[in-house]
Structure formats: structure tokens, C-alpha cells
Amino acid sequence: MNYSTLRGASYVLIHTPDMIEHNGTTQTTEKITTPDSPYLASLYDHLRSYDDVVNYAPNQTFIGNLSYEALKELPQPWVSETYTGKREGKFGEIMPELEFYGLLQLVDVFELVHLEAQFAEKVRVALNEHPLFKADAAKIKEGKDMTWLQQELDENYGEGLYYERQLVGCVSPAHQIDVNLNAHVMLENLVVKASGVLALRQLIAKQGIDPKEIDYVIECSEEACGDMNQRGGGNFAKSIAELCGCEHATGSDIRSFCAGPTHALITAASLVAAGTHKNVVLVAGGATAKLGMNGKSHVGKGLPILEDVLGGFAALISENDGIHPILRHDLTGKHEVGSGSSPQAVTTALIGSILEKAQLTIKDVDVYSVEMQNPDITKPAGAGDVPLANLKMIGAIGVLRKDIEKKDLKAFVDEKALVGWAPTQGHIPSGIPYLGFAPEDLVTGNKKRAMIVGKGSLFLGRMTNLFDGVSILIEKNSGKVTEENQQDLEALVKREVAQALRSFAANLSVE
Predict the structure, then answer these.
(1) Is 75 left (phi over 0), alpha (psi -120 to 50) or beta?
(2) Crossing angle between the packed helical segments 97-107 and 117-127, to the nearest 10 degrees
(3) How far apart are CA 108 and CA 447, in angstroms?
(4) Which pLDDT tens digit goes with each residue over 391-446?
(5) How are beta strands 4-15 and 309-319 bridged, if at all?
(6) How far are the Cα atoms of 270, 365, 369 from residue 374, in angstroms, in the given order?
(7) Which residues have a Cβ under 8 Å from the Cβ of 321 and sit 6 or more positions away?
(8) How far apart are CA 28 and CA 35, in angstroms?
(9) Sheet of strand 113-115, all strands in order from the earlier edge strand to the far edge
(10) pTM higher than 0.85
């Protein structure tokens, strides 16, 4: 059987402290329901600086500077620990808010993003120093005066852009009536696109690939773009590919809440293995709505607001080169309509089914990447340590399968458990963060197998009460490339045809 391979992945974070107040749903809802709340009044007292975000250990793991094994050894909560990080990482970067506002304008092709004149100049200077956007810096427009911006907010229902609590720009609505094209939605969509472009450009740079060789792009975030006639019609994928030099690519968007990226991974693996495309990229931008989502819980516990970054990622799936890890599209798990929604039923459907098909025990898989949410964020919010909880359930399934003894459950969890290092952007932590480490672990490292598991909450759309999830096994490459497999198949077919012809000839001679 032909298999595709995982060549590599990129990860980016964008520090957006001002967007927490103005775009995170927890805060915007609070402004409507309790505008004089103590939480809103003290919000800015609990925001981290850009340096704080860079010098935060889980963020350094996210961009590849700190291994997940090393992160596991650091005392928790990590927010209380002193750590020295870097902006640039092996997988990507942590971008400051000022530069990201420049990206919003660069990806805007309908002239909806406007920056204040002096601020626009600062953005232009900053982007001119960025290796991935130096050639685009001159495209930053001259900018508007403050009176024009304020009028756009007051009279045209524009969405403000703020920096250090000051108005520095706005996003105009793309339509005066269509709520799907109002300024708020357009800002959300442009954020997805801009962070997706950053992630894909990082992937292209880190992997040294020619963007013209990318055939297909799958965008798999949690947002959806469209107008009143097709609210989620898309297409983020092709719009991102356009700004990354992928001239020969087409693409589409895949959505399934948090499980979307793993659905996309399985789709990409199958497309390449089938020979439909040679190089498929997954990409996903960040979601402004989830900025500060658990902020009230963090502040209530005396912590800074930790959901202060947008996340983005991209990954390249290509033909088998005999080196990189293979994606076992024939060994996938799925949460079926009739699977049931209990934790045991979900784990059995997503993990147990693969082990059964592959005739493996739970100990034969070296890494389980399920929901890699940062426990610094989830514990204060009452959700506990999500990756650890998942490993405990996997271990319990192993006991039921008689893969391990009950007395060995704690040892199994201690050995296999990954600590979460991803921001709570929904689709970002769900299985995908490990893809960056997988090539090294499964090529030069001591691991043989990893399982990527994506879970989703379909009931959020109020269309069904069903849960969702899919999973796929990734393995160390045996060194046997696709072409050799094809030659073996062709030789087998020739032998069988020759044998059939000889039998046919022999029957004729007898008659």
C-alpha cells in the first residue's frame, strides 16, 4: 500500500492584548451584560507584556525551542516560573500585536483595513525588518487621520483596532446590510487569514519548499467565511495560498469544530496516498473570539489573563520519500453516530479501534496527542489537566483490553502522558501540536508510533447533540518508498497476467 508522509509543521503565536477587551467574547459579552463589572475595570492590570509571553515556557515549546520532555520537568504552574525564551523558534515565531495589524492590512484585498497615519508608519518600519514580510512592507498604506477613523466607527459601524489602549485603526464593513459581512465578522475572518498566512509562510521558509510545488491547501480553523447567501461557503484556503506564492494550488476548507484539523490530516494523507496530489498543506489561523475566554477565572485566582495569544499552524503532507514518518490512512479511528458520548465510548472509538485493527497494545504507541491544552489555562477554569485526563482514560481502556494490569496504570500514565503546551483556541490544541515534533521523534528519535486524536463538540452548533472525533496513526518510515511499492505491484500484476495467459493457452491446446 502507498502511504503519504509528514514532512514538517510550523506554529505561530500572535500576542494580541488589546484584542482581548474588544474581540474576545467573554469580554464583549461582559460589556453588554455587566458594563460596570470589576473584571472589566481591572482587565488591563492583568495583561502580560510581549516579553512575558515570549518568556513563557509552554509558548517556547509551541514554537519548538523547548522540547515537550523538558517542559514536563518544569514545575507547574509555569506562569510562576522564570524562563528565558526567544521570538523565533524551530517551528515558527511569536509575533507582537503591532506587526500583526500590518498583516491584517496586507491580507485585505477589499480595502477594509485602515490604520492611523503615524501608526501605519511604525508598522511599515517594523515589517521591513521581518524576513517573511520585508518585500510587503511598502504595501502598508499611508493611513487615515483620527477624525476619519472615529467617524468610521460612529457612523459606518466599523470595528476598532487598538494598540496600548489607543485607537490606531479600524475595519470597515464589507456590506451595509449583510450581517455576515459586517465589520466584526470581517475582522474575525481577516485575523484567520492573516495568522494563516504567517503560519504557511513560516512552513515554507522552515521546510525550504517551493510554494509552486504545493498542489492543494486545506484550511481547518473554526471560523467560516461567506455572505448572506452562503454563510460558511469559504474559501480561506485559497485566499491564504494566494498570498504565499502557491500559484499552482487549489484548496478548500474543512470544518468540524476542534476536530477539524485531524479530519484535514486524514484527508490530506489520503489524497497524497491516492496520487490525487503530491503536496498537500494543512493550515489554520487563530480565533479572536476565544481571547480571554477564561479570563475571569484567571483573574479570580490572582493570575494574569493567559489566553492572550492567537495560535496558527501549518503542516506539509507529501509523497513517501522513505525517510519521513508515514501517515497510516488505513489505520484511523472515528466516533460514529452510534458510538455513544461517554468518555469510555469515545476513547474506545478513537483509540481502541485503531489498536484492534493494527493488532497493537496501548503500550505499542509511544505518543498519544489528544487535547494538548495548557493546564495553566484549564486548571484555574475548573477543567483540570486535560491531556492527563485523556491519558488516564486511555490507560483504563488498556486495562479493559488486558494490555496492562490495573496495578500498572499509574506507571503507564506517568510514562506516556504529555503535558499540554497549546493555547485554548479550540482547533489548535486538538492533537495537532505534536506534528512539529513527530518528524524528529520518528526519524532520528527512539519512537516508532504516535497517534493524533482530534475531538469536536458538534452540539455547539445546535444542530445535534452528537460528539465528534477522528484519529490517525503515524509510524516510523520503513525506508520503502512509494515507487518501489508500485514496482512490486506492477511485477505482481505482470506475473499473474502471464500465468493466466499460460493457463488459457494450455486449455486451448487441450481442447
Answers:
(1) beta
(2) 100
(3) 43
(4) 999 999 999 999 999 999 999 999 998 999 999 988 999 899 999 999 999 999 99
(5) antiparallel
(6) 31, 22, 13
(7) 5, 477, 481
(8) 9
(9) 113-115, 166-171, 159-163
(10) yes
